[in-house]
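Table S2 (text version). Query chain:
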Amino acid sequence: MNIALVAHDKKKEAIIKFALSYKHILTKHQLFATGTTGKKISESTGLDVFRFQSGPLGGDQQIGAKIADNEMDLVIFFRDPLTAQPHEPDISALMRLCDVHQIPLVTNLAGAEILIRALEAGFFEWRNLINRNDIEG
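Corresponding structure-token output:
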């Protein structure tokens, strides 16, 4: 599965700890991330992470393009809801694309732990069996 990992500045440490905790699961999948988040995860865990631009420079939109092209399966986005983000429209667009294309999206640690455990249990195998474009919203 292709998994996007994104984190706002104040949540980068949390996503690194998450990646360390679930490295045994994440290592079995293709990982993508926005710039700094991907670099920090890779350096801290040794995981192979394809890095897009940083979020404010277009990384969120690059992940969105992968979603629109049916090339992303899950998005784990540790958002900081208490800090204004100058690229909030890009974040909203990314979340909207997840909804439109039926891409599971979690925005906090609790949701990420549920999602990663479901992934480990094989609950997303249906994504390999059908074309997402055939799913009615």
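Notes on Table S2: The chain is about 45% helix and 15% strand. The mean pLDDT is 91.
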